[in-house]
Amino acid sequence: MPRPANSLTSMEHLADILDLEQIEENLFRGQSPNVGWQRLFGGLVIGQALAATQRTAPADRFVHSLHAYFLRPGDPSVPVVYEVDRIRDGGSFTTRRAVAIQHGKPIFALSASFHLDEPGLEHQIAMPDITPPEDLPDSDTIYEKFLRDAPEHIRHFWLRERPVEIRPVSMTHYISSDRLEPNQHVWVKANGQVPDDRRTAAAILAYVSDMTLLDTALFPHGTSVFDRSIQGASLDHAMWFHADPDFSDWLLYTQDSPFSGGARGLSRGAIYTRSGRLIASVAQEGLIRKRATD
User: Fold this and answer.
1) pTM
2) Is there a catalytic annotation at residue 32?
3) Count of CB atoms situated within 10 Å of the CB of 205
4) Which is more confident, 180 or 286?
5) What is the reported pLDDT for 4?
């Protein structure tokens, strides 16, 4: 099966890219991997910005939430500079803000809050009963069954090697124009070893959280992000961290979209371990605009 060339093919490489270079106090530089796209993947910028804020937070405090805005498309041909503002260090919470800069202009802004580990009341919603990843098509089967005759840009996305393997429970929306219910379930797994470090794991989870999310808002409209008549882009992104991920096994990313309108679509997500532990909640609004035609 043919696989397009890609420089970001393993989890070890992703972890290395998330290990930012410090160039001055509160100033960091992140590399832009060559993945063959015209703009930076939003999850990479989220992960790097979170990594920058984590480098300035106290060692005993860990991220519990982040809120971010995408301001301009990122240029994959040049590095990204992250400037961190140490907004507050409180008794048990720490707040940081990072601005990602390219060509002298901000392309992304993220605020993150960090919290001391402490006990508290606990509950969570149950993980849905979903087909396990072993019973779903792997990448070779996806190619043979769904993608052999698909447009080249769709094959390129699904067949390129990446730090995270993706197994959707359903591929219907990629091969059909049917209007579907606005929900999807995707299993994801690290392609390689994840460092045994809570901060790196959180940045990797933030990277994963941007995968497939915007697409869910297009399900009711019989299209996908690969439809070139659609202009789609992430506008903002929010994430809450509930527990440490177990990257040694598959994670379930379950998503729904409660609303689209006004050229925007809202998607929500929940990430579970295979055992059913809820480890993160996600929300994102994206631009969904029909391109003008002659």
Assistant:
1) 0.91
2) no
3) 26
4) 286
5) 41
